[in-house]
Amino acid sequence: MSIADNLLKYKNELEADGVQLVAVSKFQDAAAVQEAYDAGQRVFGENIVQELVDKQAQLPQDIQWHLIGHLQTNKVKYIAPFISVIESVDSLKLLIEINKQAAKHKRVIDCLLQIYIADEDTKFGLGFDEAIELLRSEEYATLKNIRIVGLMGIASNHAADKQTTDEFTELKVLFDGIKLSFFRKEDTFKEVSMGMSGDYKLAVEAGSTMVRIGSSIFGKRVIKHYKTE
Ligand SMILES: *Cc1c(COP(=O)(O)O)cnc(C)c1O
Question: In this structure, is residue 229 part of a structural domain?
Answer without folding.
Answer: no
